[in-house]
What does this fold into?
Amino acid sequence: MHLLLIIGVALAICVVGFALQNNVPVTVTLAMWNFEGSLALVLLLALGLGVLIAGLMSSPSMIKSRWTHSRLRQKVVRLEQDKIGLERRIVELEAEIASLTPEIIPEEEPQRYLGFKSLFLGEPGKPKE
It folds into this structure.
């Protein structure tokens, strides 16, 4: 904010200096209209009209981009709300699944089937009895 104020004051000083140095009277004729004034006034008037025309020409694209930006911001907010709702639903469903499935208690490993060969030769790694 202060930077803009400083820039504005510096620009005003430059404009005043420009006007004091270019105070030669000039006549501007456009069709049937005549205007007589200082060179600085005519140049600043032309600059102002140029800025006004440029602003009017660029305003439709600026309005469109702001509209698009606001529409996308609303979409982001809506999607974030949907995400929060879905996260809550996931927690609810996980709690429901936990209440429906009983705790699985690991049972003892069942004894292996002893094949014919292991009956006569013994299990590998165990001494014969």
Q: What stands out?
A: The longest strand covers residues 25-30. Strands lie at 25-30, 33-38. The longest helix spans residues 39-100. The mean pLDDT is 83.
